[in-house]
Amino acid sequence: MPDQLLTIETTRLAAGNVRLRLTGELDYDSAPDLVAAAAELRGDGDAPVLVDLTGVTLCDSSGLSALLMVHRAAGAIRLTGVSSQLQRMLDRTGLSELLAEAYADDDVRAIG
């Protein structure tokens, strides 16, 4: 079975918000891609970053580390589309509070 690559779609939303939509596997091999995509956003100042994980099929400890690095680089992130398995990992590691609560659907529509 071939590895499923991670794709990252960056979208500039209303009011300076930015969304990173991830699809595929967020793991040891692909985590640097997420960190690099977030680094490109540094020039946007304090623009909030929404990380859409709806299309993520696997997230390992390297993926969690990459999300933490994005959080540090962006100042704060909001996660949406978190699977139940990933939510359990976030809860068990204490990262769910640090990486912020997911936006409600109405909030996502409100920011773009």
UniProtKB/TrEMBL annotation:
UniProt feature coiled coil, ranges: none
Domain STAS: 7-112
InterPro entries listed in its UniProt record: MlaB-like_STAS, STAS_dom, STAS_dom_sf
Signal peptide limits: none
Protein known as: STAS domain-containing protein
Organism annotation: Micromonospora noduli
